[in-house]
Amino acid sequence: LEAMSIGDTIDVRGPSGLLVYKGRGVFNIKEDKKGAGKDVTAKQVSMIAGGTGITPMLQLVRAVFRDPEDDTQLSLLFANQTEEDILLRQELEQVQKEHPDRFKLWYTVDRPAEGWTYSSGFVNSEMIEKALFPPSSDNLVLLCGPPPMINFACNPNLDKLGYTQSNRFSY
What is the 3-state secondary structure (H, E, C) of 97-126? Predict the structure, then answer.
């Protein structure tokens, strides 16, 4: 964006409103904008975000931990190009420090620097097993990131590990 000139354009996509967190593990999920949606309850939420796909995940993290009565457990696998590209890292790590029993955080980067202690490379089944909760009817998986990451890395590996399509939502 910083290299754009006056008159240049970009395409942006706003919130779809297809998934709404009602609190305390209850989500309303719509198949389309016109439908009423159905409520889904999850004790655990496994999130995979890529780059700016952290945005809806951070909103959920903030909502869960803002309510002292919400005992939903969260896990986040956050993929980026480099360590320097990790958005909101300090805030995420602060939440993990304050709620280590309820918030699991793991990173992967495509180009790790020397001394990097998390994963490297594209999202794969080993990372998913390490970072996320195992497949179950109480585990909702949320995905937000570049379409190639979702379609060629996340979904095939989630399928391979037994995560059902019915317990998955892509922003």
Answer: HHCCCCEEEEEEECCCCCCCCCEECCCCHH
What are the residues facing 28 on neighbouring strands?
A: 20, 39
pTM: 0.90
State yes or no: pLDDT of 14 exceeds 80.
no
**Helices 89-98 & 54-66 angle (0-180, nearest 10):** 30
- Angstrom distance (rounded) from CA 152 to CA 149: 6
Instruction: Give buried/exposed letters for 153-168 (b at 16+ CB in 10 A, else e).
Output: bbbebbeeeebeeebb
Dihedral class, residue 85 (left if φ above 0, else alpha if ψ from -120 to 50, else beta) = alpha
Query: What pLDDT band is residue 13 in, cutting at 50, 70 and 90?
Result: low
